[in-house]
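Appendix B, record 7
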Amino acid sequence: MILDRAAWFVRYASGWDWWRWSALLAICCLLLPLLWRIGAIWASDQPPHWRLARWDSAGLAPDPAASPEPIIQFYAARTWGWRGIFGVHSWVVFKPRGAARYFRYEVVGWGVDAGAPAVRESTRAPDGYWAGNPPVLLAEKRGDDVDRLIERLREAIRSYPFPAEYRLWPGPNSNTFTAYLARALPEMHVDLPPTAIGKDYLPPGEFAARAPTGSGFQLSLLGLLGITIGPREGIELNLLGLVVGLDFLHPALKLPFVGRIGVAA
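Structure tokens (predicted):
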């Protein structure tokens, strides 16, 4: 029965026009992932306000007292409320050799219109939940060779081209900041998820750059239209900030709203 129905569909679909195939592709790559995320948000037990959500440590960052070596980590977590349907918030933390605490840097939007800087040194836990959403460790380096990377990271934070600008879409936002730092430290191989909307936003006048993982390149028109190709990214197509792609190194399909489906990176 199933094989008969499949054979019928193949015969039927073979006569489709291009617009029907385009509609089917749009449903598979956009509508279904969107409905999945909306259902996930609806079924979650998020508190009524972000101030009431969890912001404590998720236990991913090593204890500075037990780990004196220098450490750099990149994190991402789903954003709050309806924004969590579309994307993630990302940030970077580092701990110099022998330091008693981590330094956490990220870009946030609240207060920017009133004159606050977009780039903030946060007092939150380095691996804290983001409005109740658990963080994911994207990349980490520790050991003797990290001392010089921390110096380069500090310089990249200082040279970020949008220190007082924030725009949720298409950027510059938190993912624009993290992608900029990742390009400055290609040794980290930071593979930002396809749900990191804003990661492909480049400064005005720039249309090409190294891919954030440091292993490929990307072309982008203000984060609205572009392509990224590299051994670690695979191939990613960006349309209006939404990313569809294939990861060949760790076989997976990359989709808007839901992220990766396949082997974990």
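Remarks on this record: The chain has a mean pLDDT of 89. The longest strand covers residues 71-78.
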